[in-house]
Amino acid sequence: MSGATERKDYPVSMRLPEADLAIIDRAARLRGRSRTDFVREAAMQAAEDVVLQTLPIRMSQEGFQAFVDTLSEPARPVPEMVEVLKRPAPWETPGSGER
């Protein structure tokens, strides 16, 4: 008997409307993936997001107090963000709507 672990894959079957399948296939092609790979990756990402959203955040009392203290401080501007927000939006620049 070898020491290698035997890989087990399990099939998943689902019924989808034609429109859903069309958009999944289009997105998979745009990513250069097979339908199976695309759907698996999307499902895994969604599952990980749900699991991570339900995990408790644990920290020491000191860490929590530092967190609360930081939140209690007055807000400070971030110069880079202030600069970006001062720029006109692309649709506000001269000639942006003209072709």
Automatic annotation (TrEMBL):
<comment type="similarity">
    <text>Belongs to the TacA antitoxin family.</text>
</comment>
<dbReference type="InterPro" id="IPR010985">
    <property type="entry name" value="Ribbon_hlx_hlx"/>
</dbReference>
<protein>
    <recommendedName>
        <fullName>CopG family transcriptional regulator</fullName>
    </recommendedName>
</protein>
<keyword id="KW-0238">DNA-binding</keyword>
<dbReference type="InterPro" id="IPR014795">
    <property type="entry name" value="TacA_1-like"/>
</dbReference>
<dbReference type="Pfam" id="PF08681">
    <property type="entry name" value="TacA1"/>
</dbReference>
<dbReference type="GO" id="GO:0003677">
    <property type="term" value="F:DNA binding"/>
</dbReference>
<keyword id="KW-0678">Repressor</keyword>
<keyword id="KW-0804">Transcription</keyword>
<keyword id="KW-0805">Transcription regulation</keyword>
<dbReference type="GO" id="GO:0006355">
    <property type="term" value="P:regulation of DNA-templated transcription"/>
</dbReference>
<keyword id="KW-1277">Toxin-antitoxin system</keyword>
